[in-house]
Design a protein that fits this description.
Blueprint lengths: L3 E5 L3 H8 L4 E5 L4 H4 L6 E2 L5 H10 L4 E6 L1 H10 L6 E6 L11 E6 L2 E6 L5 E5 H6 L2 H29 L4 H7 L1 H13 L5 H21 L8 H12 L10 H20 L3 H13 L5 H6 L4 H9 L7 H6 L5 H7 L2
Parallel strand pairs: 1-8, 2-3, 2-4, 4-5, 5-8
Antiparallel strand pairs: 6-7
Helix pairs in contact: 6-7, 6-8, 6-9, 6-11, 6-12, 8-12, 10-11, 10-14, 11-12
């Protein structure tokens, strides 16, 4: 059965009380630990190491997992549900990626993070009170990340069509109708991160997750723009502190891929659409915007020089080492 999305007006504590019983393992992050530990005995998760998954599975007896927090906690909840049949409920308290309801976890093996098929949650419950109580700047930053990750489906579709040898706007759009719909909604209907905005974003991220599960692969949600993210993380360890966010970085790769696509196809509809959506959401569009979130021009060039993926759309450009396109895309 597919994961069910619930959008709840209960607090995190009330949600966990309603979802958990004596056989439930509650996983949470540092942000949610103070409130939860006064009502239950949650296990703090701050790392995605596969060794921690093994430790949790051997140390605790449980028939259900409730995972509360951001991406790392949700990844660990999915991973710790693998094995015998176990019920899993995820409670995202930030909307920062398009994998809320997926069956894939990013786990660390030594120094490398690797995506692995794990378990799908039976329910994904968005905690509206926690989201709405987040300070405005943090809420916008994390939600921008969620939109950035969602819009990366466009550049992934470009990569897919590049491999197929059919690089047209019609083909690219046909692969990712949900993303195109989301971009149009942002341009015409987004009015900020109020309750309506959060409900809409949460629904888009949930549906994007289910699309990956149905398809059985990530080819239309992760491509050259995500490879760029990983190269930046490897080359610039300071970026791992969370500024910039995952979604902000892949949004940059999406812009580059779209400019290349516009040049090659002589069709700018998709690039224009994405740039309008970015402007509404205040995702980075200029060098000044990139500097504000901690990304330096030289770091971006260094990551592109080490992309080492000439078979993908973005990589086939990067291998040439001509960076004039960067200034064209990110000119103030």
């Amino acid at each position: 059965m597919e994961t069910i999305l619930d959008i709840s007006s209960l607090t995190v504590v009330e949600l966990v009380a309603a979802l958990a019983d004596d056989s439930t393992l509650v996983l949470c992050d540092a942000h949610n630990l103070p409130s939860l530990k006064t009502h239950c005995a949650p296990v703090l998760v701050s790392d995605c190491a596969v060794s921690i998954v093994d430790e949790i599975k051997s140390k605790y007896e449980y028939d259900r997992i409730v995972a509360v927090g951001g991406c790392t906690v949700l990844d660990m909840g999915r991973a710790c549900s693998v094995g015998k049949p176990r019920r899993l409920v995820v409670v995202p308290t930030i909307l920062s990626t398009s994998c809320l309801s997926s069956n894939i976890s990013v786990l660390r093996h030594g120094e490398r993070n690797r995506p692995e098929v794990t378990s799908s949650p039976e329910r994904c419950v968005l905690c509206l009170p926690t989201l709405l109580e987040t300070d405005g700047r943090s809420l916008a930053r994390w939600c921008q990340s969620g939109f950035g990750d969602l819009f990366a489906n466009i550049s992934a579709s470009i990569d897919f069509q590049y491999e197929m040898g059919k690089l047209t706007t019609k083909e690219v759009k046909a692969n990712v109708p949900l993303t195109v719909e989301a971009m149009r909604w942002v341009i015409s209907g987004f009015n900020g991160y109020d309750e309506e905005g959060l409900r809409q974003l949460g629904s888009y991220l949930h549906e994007a997750s289910l699309t990956v599960v149905r398809r059985g692969d990530t080819r239309l949600s992760s491509a050259g723009e995500h490879l760029l993210y990983h190269r930046l993380m490897e080359r610039q360890p300071d970026y791992r502190q969370g500024l910039p966010t995952h979604g902000q970085i892949v949004a940059i790769g999406t812009l580059l891929s779209l400019r290349l696509f516009s040049i090659q196809s002589k069709e700018s509809e998709l690039e224009d659409l994405v740039r309008k959506a970015y402007e509404r959401l205040q995702l980075p569009l200029t060098w000044s915007d990139l500097e504000k979130i901690g990304i330096k021009r030289e770091h971006l060039i260094d990551a592109l020089e080490h992309l080492a993926a000439p078979q993908c759309h973005l990589g086939s450009w990067a291998v040439k080492g001509d960076w004039t396109l960067l200034d064209e895309v990110f000119a103030s």
